[in-house]
Amino acid sequence: MTATAYPLAWPFGLPRTEASRRVASQFKTELPAALKNVQNSLRRFGEATGKAVSSVVISSNYTLGVTNPVDPGVAVWFLWDGKERCIAVDRYPRLQHNLQAIHHVLEARVTEARHGGLRIVQQTFTGFVALPAPTDVNGRTPAQVLGLDGRSFGRDEIVAAHRELAMKLHPDRKDGDGQAMADLNAARDALLSGLPA
Length: 197
Fold this sequence. Notes:
Elements: H1 31-49, E1 54-60, E2 74-80, E3 83-89, H2 95-116, H3 118-124, H4 142-145, H5 155-169, H6 178-193
Antiparallel strand pairs: 1-2, 2-3
C-alpha cells in the first residue's frame, strides 16, 4: 500500500470536484462517528463478501490544528480480493461528510453482496481498483520527481519545486537534459491535475 494518511493521497485518474461545485450535505455526522462508520462498513463488507479487507489507510488533509482543511477530500485505501482499492469523495465541503458518504458507498456494496453475491460485487467494484500513479522512465512518482515525496504540498509548492528544478534541468542550460525536463513537466501536470480547482 503506497497511500499515506497525510497529506491526502487522491487516486490517480479520478477527477477532483471544483470547490465551487461542492454541495451541502444532509449528513449530521461528526468526524469520530464518521470514522467509526467507515471502519464498521469495511468490516461488514469483508464479512458479507467472504474476502478480508486489510491494509486500510484513511487519507486526508486533516491534521492537529487543521480539523477543517481547505481541501476536504477523503480517500479510503484498502486491499480486497487481491487488489488495492480506493473509494474517494470530495463532493461535500466538510471532511466528515465526505467520509460519511464513503460509509454509504460501502454499505451499498454490503447490500449487493448479501442480495446479489460475490460476482455482482466484483463487477461493480471494478471501478474502485486503485490505479498506480504514473511514473517516469526511472520509475519515480510525480511527487518524487519534484522532490515533494512524503511532504504536504499544494499548488504553490508544486509550481515552486518545478521552477527550481527547471532552472537546472532545462535543455538550454549547460547541463540540461531534455528527457529530465519532459519528466519534470509531466510530474507537475499530474500533481496539479490532482488538486481541486
